[in-house]
Amino acid sequence: MSESVSSEVKITNSIDGVAGFSVAGVHAGLKKEGALDFAIIASDRPSVAAGVFTRNTVKAAPVLLTMQRAAEHGEDIRAIAINTKSANACTGEEGMANAEKMARLVAGQIGINAQQVMVMSTGVIGTQLPMAKIENGAQLAGKSLGNDWQAAATAIMTTDTRPKLASVTISTAQGEYTIAGISKGSGMIAPNMATMLGVVVTDAELSQPFAQQAVRTGADASFNRAIVDGDTSTNDMVVLMANGASGVSIDQMESADGQQFQAALNEVMMSLAKQVVRDGEGVSKFISLHINNAATAEDALQIGRTIANSPLVKTAFFGNDANWGRIMAAAGRSGAALDHHLAHLYFAVGEDSTDDALCLFANGQPTDYSEEEATRIIKHSDVTVILDCGMGDASCRLWTCDLSHEYVSINSDYRS
Amino acid sequence: MSESVSSEVKITNSIDGVAGFSVAGVHAGLKKEGALDFAIIASDRPSVAAGVFTRNTVKAAPVLLTMQRAAEHGEDIRAIAINTKSANACTGEEGMANAEKMARLVAGQIGINAQQVMVMSTGVIGTQLPMAKIENGAQLAGKSLGNDWQAAATAIMTTDTRPKLASVTISTAQGEYTIAGISKGSGMIAPNMATMLGVVVTDAELSQPFAQQAVRTGADASFNRAIVDGDTSTNDMVVLMANGASGVSIDQMESADGQQFQAALNEVMMSLAKQVVRDGEGVSKFISLHINNAATAEDALQIGRTIANSPLVKTAFFGNDANWGRIMAAAGRSGAALDHHLAHLYFAVGEDSTDDALCLFANGQPTDYSEEEATRIIKHSDVTVILDCGMGDASCRLWTCDLSHEYVSINSDYRS
Q1: What is the value of ipTM here, to two decimals?
Q2: What is the reported pTM?
C-alpha cells in the first residue's frame, strides 16, 4: 500500500450531516411497492458546483441541462434533484423540456430559481419521464428535506442492492469542514468517463475553478478506475457542491489545505467507487488490479482496462479458476507496449494488497508455483492481481469484479 | 442483401475433397475419452502458404514458428499440424523448442522436411505441450492421412460443439478448382485480428504475393467481422495453402479469374466465420449488425464493434428484451462521429435481412413502434440490427451473438 493520499484521512460509510445541506429521499411512484425513487440534495445558500460528465456522444437530457447549469450558474447552485427508473435519454425535445420542468418543479417547492437546480436521471433509455410522478416526487421531497442521507442514497439506486455513502471531517487552522458523497452503480460502469451518478458536497468554501479541478482530479483517481462491465452510460455524472457553511475557505490547490482537501476528496470518491464495484451487478469477487512499471501512464491504464474488461478474465475469477494465461493474453492485446518476457504476474489475498504475493509467471513462462496455492488465493472474495510489466516506471491501480450468472440474469430482464 | 460478392458462388458446409490434399484427425490423448484432438492437413506437393496472425503482442510459440515458415518457406509448405488442449503460449524457450519438435515429428511421419510444416495450437495458455502425446498424434495422423475432412475439422475443436467446414468448386476456362476450409472457435473471438484457427486450402495455383493479399482480404471480410466476446487469443491464425493440383492458375487479382477467386474465398471464409459465431460459447441468438451511412469506414467499424462487444446489449438479446437504448448508448460511447438526432435504428428478422424492418428510433427519440412487434422480432434466433447513422456513406456488416448464462458457465470452469 503506497497511495500518495495521506493516511490521516479516515472515511466512514455514513453521513452525519454537512453544514447548510439538507436532503430527502421519497417514493414518487416511479418504482414499485413504495421503494424510494426520488431525491433532492439542497443547500440553504448558493453553492459552487462543478462536475464531470459522460463522454458518450449520446448524452441524456439531464446531462445536457446540468452541464449548462454548471457552465452558466456554477457559483449559484442550490439543489440537485435525482430520479430513477427513467434515464430521459434518446428522448428528443420532449425529453429536454421534461428535464427543465423537473428543475422548475423542484425550484418551486424549495422557493428558489429553476436555474439554481441541477437534475440527474437514471434508468431505462428511450422512455419519456412520467411527469406526474416527477411532480409528486418534487412535492414530497421538498416537504421532507432534512438530514436523512441514507434515504437520499437509497432513492437513487437502480439495480444497486445497497446505498453508497462516504464522508470525512477534516480539521484545519480555520476550523473543521466535511466532505460527504453518495453514488449509485451498478451496471454500465466503465472507465475514462464521469461514470455513474455521484453527488459530493462539502461545507468548505471553494472557488468554482478550484472545485472543477478538484472534482476532475478526484474522478480520475476513483470512478474512472472502477470497471464493472465496460459500458458507459448516456447519463453518467458526478457533481461536487461546495457551500462554504463551515467557514473554512480553501482556494489554493498548491497550499497544504488545498492538498489536504484534494486527498480527502479523492478518498471519499474512491470509497464510493469501490462501493459501486463491490455492489456491481452480480459481483461475487472484488479485484484490485495493480499495473506496475509500464512504459507510460497511458500504457498502464490501457493494459489495466483491457484486463478488467475481458469477459474471459472475469468469468475465470467467477469460477475461482487461477487461469492467469487469460490475463497475459488480455495484456498482450491491449495495444500497449508489452514484452511478456519482461513481465511478472502475481496474485495476493486482499484489497490493494501485496502481502505474500504469489508469482505465477516470469521470464516468459510459468514459474513452478503450486496450483493449489493459486487456487487458494483466488477463492477469496478480495484478490489483488499485480502485473509488473518491466517496461518502465508508470503504474496504476484499478478496481474491478468478476462476471457471473447473476450479471446475465439481471441484465437480460432489466426492463421487466 | 447487396453484398458485392457474386451470387453464383454456392458454399456447402462439407468438403468432398481437394486435389492433392489429404487430411487426418486422430485421438492423440490430449482430450479425454477418445475425442479427436490432433489434425494434419497435407499436400502431396509443395504449396504456396500465406497467413494472417494474431496482433496480440503475446504470441504463442506456434504462431511465431508459423509466421517464420510463411516468411522463409512460403512457396514450399507441405503440411499444417494442429493440436488442441494446450495453446503453447507463455511457455518460453521450452515452448518454442516444443513447437519446432512438433513440426519435426510430423515431417518425419510424412517424409518431408520440418521447414515444410506449419503448426497451430489451441487450448489453455501457460502449460507446456505434452510431447509424448504430440508424438503419438503425429504417428497416428501420419498413418491415417486420407479424405476425412470431417475428422480433421472435429480434431481442432475446443469448446466448439460442432465442426466447421465450408467448400466451393469454381469453373473457369482453364477447368475447375476447389476452395475448402475448416476452422474452430468459440471463445476469445474478437475483431481486427486474424482471430481463431482456420485453414483454407485450394488446388488452384497462386503466387505467394497473391495468396497473401487474398487471405488478408478474405480475413478482413469474414473472421475480422465475427465477434463473440471481444477477447483476442494469443494463438489466432488463418492460413491459406494453394498447391496448384487442379491445373488452374490464377495470378492477377485484377483479372476476372482473380476477382472470382477472391469472391469465392471470401464466401468460404464468411461461411466459416458465421459458423464460428453461431457455435460461439453459449450462443442462443445470431445477430447480423449492419452499420450504414457512417461518416467513415473506420467509424462504421468502430460503432459496430462497440455495439457487438457491449455486455449490456448482448445480455438484452439473451433475454429477448428489445432494449434498443443500450444499442444507441454503445454507439454513442464508441468514439466514432455520431449525432444521434440523425440516426435511425431498425430490427428485422433473419440473417443479413432488411425484410419488414421495424424502425424503433428516429429524430432523436423513440418512434411510436409497438413494443409487442419489437419483442416478436427479437425472439427469433436470427435478428438483424440496422443502424443508419445519417452521417455519410460508409457501411459495414458484422456478425455477433448474445451473452448467456452458458457462456459464463463454460468460461468459469474452462480448465477443469
Answers
A1: 0.73
A2: 0.81
